[in-house]
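=== Structure Prediction Worksheet ===
Name of assembly: unnamed complex
Input type: mixed (protein and possibly other molecules)
Chain count: two
Listed entries:
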Amino acid sequence: MRPSAPWTILHVDLDALPTRLEIPAEARGVLLYFRMQGMVLGLTHEMPEAFPMEAGDLARRAAQAIGGTVTLLLACGLDPVRPHELPDLWADRGVPAAEDLDRLSDLIRARRDAAPALTASIVICTRRRPRDLANCLDSLSTEIAGDRDIVVVDNGPDPETRAVVEAHPGVRYVTEPTPGLSRARNAGVLAARGDVVVFVDDDVRPEPGWIEPLLGAFAPGVDVVCGLVLPETLAAEAQIAFQYDLGFGGMGQVPLLYDRVFLDRSPASPPVWDIGAGANMAVRRRRVLELGGFDERIGPGAAGGCGDDSEYWSRVLHAGGAIVYEPLSVVRHRHRDSWDDLKRQAYGYGFGHIVALLAQYGRNRDRRDLRRALWTMPVWLARRGLKAPLQRLLRKPDRLTGPWLRGYAGSLAYLPMAFRPPATSFLPPQPRSDDE
Amino acid sequence: MRRTWTAADLRAPWAIVEQEMTQPLEPLSMGEAQGVYLLLRHKGRPAGRLLIGRSAFGAEVPPAGLKALVQDTGGPMATAYGLYDHLTAGLAPPALPPLTIAVCTRNRAVLLRRTLEALVRLRDGRTGDAVPFEIMVVDNAPPDNSTRDAVAEFAGVRYAMEPVPGLDFGRNRALRETDRPYLGFIDDDAVPDHGWLDGFAESLRDQPAAGAFTGPVLPMILETEAQVRFEAAGGFGEGIDWRSYRRRRWNDPFYPANTGRLGTGTNMIFRTATLRDLDGFDEALDTGPPLPGGGDLDIFYRVVRSGAPLAYSPRQAVRHEHRQDMPGLRRQFRSWGLSMGALIQKNARHDPETRAAHRRVLSWLLVQHYGRMLAGYPLGRAALPPGFVLSEISGLVQGLFGEYDRSLARVAQRRKDHAA
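=== Predicted Assembly ===
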């Protein structure tokens, strides 16, 4: 039983604990993120009764919330770890001493301050959300002032969006009239000039300094880097459900490395969708061109929902590339605040996930993907569907199973995608690039 | 997690060994003991406990065999202590406020002496307090002078007498007698751990608004089978970590009906004003048979429901000598069932908002908790014979069916008798 909306989100800087932490009077739930040098080390949920909270009380909660992460981060020295190596790392751990926190702080700062060797372009794909886009561009003022190559791909396109872009000199405006996030991403990749394309969704506000950790994580062989996505607000019931029931809250605090081993070790379909979120993702531009771009048959605007990002990750892994999850890079996502939007999103997730799996099977012929699409997911959904009446009786209605089931049913229309050979590339033929 | 003892180990005696987490792990040598209760500490503060049975590990346990267990058990809290020390380095150091520690006792002068010795040593060993804490013994309906004489042996220990028999009459006597802003209680069968008051002072600095302060109750000795079995069954059951309880709790459908986890009467310190606002302890509880318990859980419950936080710190620990004989332990379990039943009835009546939580606790107890304990016995996984569970259930039933009201009537009569 979580408290009802609105919740308030507070970011607590562990290097300078407030002597007293206050919350707005209307908050019915509190989510605390404990951060050091900007890095999220842990979080805790509190009832409003716990506030105002004294520094010592805060320290107790923080110490209990961050202990495991601090131990792991010290053990790996902030270098990405393969997920299956985490238990070994945990077994070899020591008990961190008080001064280790200083060491960790230095480590984070060093990583954050390292000058990236690669150049970056920021690509914002948007469609008929000029207000969101304006907010997003406002939060990028440092990047704009720093002459970063920024491209807005208008997937609408409409004059309002164009006007917003023109209000931000230095930002390039590109249109992609055919709807589809994958299409827009491809247009952005083609227009971009940097070694790395950093995608920012229009409903996302990057935190200052989010881009350097993304670039810094591009070690040789790494083709994609994903970062952490935090909720901007949890003021509406639908936003809380989006964060907790739609599986947006599961991103970890430890940097992870996904490569061939991840594909080989997974008994079921390798959970590429858990790697990160397209809302905070950077890709090596040359590699996108080599791999034929984002699959324009799937994703929002085309088939619908999601999967444009995770299908590309799956392709990268199958092609021998590596993906890094770098939680040091943080953006804040504005979750939809209406139930209708949330249900649409659940429908889209149910739909897009299956379509992505079918497309993956069509490309890689990995039976595990097909099995998940045609057996694991329907069984899981059927279980949820059967439980739904009971939940209604217990007054805990499951409002998302309906849209999910409908999404699944809709996705089956795309079954032929699994058995038809895919296009070799969604991009126009490229002159051989000679960067790197 | 791996089981660290089997039913064959639950015989007396067990040894209690302390291991400092910042020091290398010592090998364990059990000698005559059937097992070792390993108390893990981090810079003196309790960080975890492990029950190491002889049959599971052998009489000699090299450090290598324990390393992972110790890490898993004490590691999280040791880490948290280290981080807490770092994060609070810039804060004002905790200060002990003027405080009375009351020991309510009746006719147990031998035990009382041990508690008083420990309290006096703690008091005289402390430096830097603005006022040394006051030690008060409340002699409850004394049949003779033995308690008064025992108190006279110690310098600076105050004696108070409460003529009406009943532990909560005694506690309320302490509340009337004290003139200090904080009032603590420790039982005559317990002694404070060396960091008891440091833990309290730290909790007070961190949660100055708290109305109650408590912590774990750790075993003092494990010399009899009853003591070993009690500890193997989970002891007093509160965890070794920081907790803070208030009117409501995040994601806990049983709260606040699961009062058993809040704390124990042998380790509790209150803001005196909070106690006075709540009219003190409920004298209809802890009356001795037929309702010998519940006053501690009741006051914790009322403190958190009044809106004052309850601060639980593992550093504020006491060491308790558990019941020595199996029949006595069995009566204890029955008494816990009784007080739980009586409190469920009382709270559901006075605090209707929590009725659903009380119902959930009751069904959890009957279906899952007792069911699992009874089912575990034939599998050799239960520390206590089924008779104990049945005793607790019978107590619970009796408590649920009007025991609180009957006790109210008995106590009213008791007051009348003494007024006359």
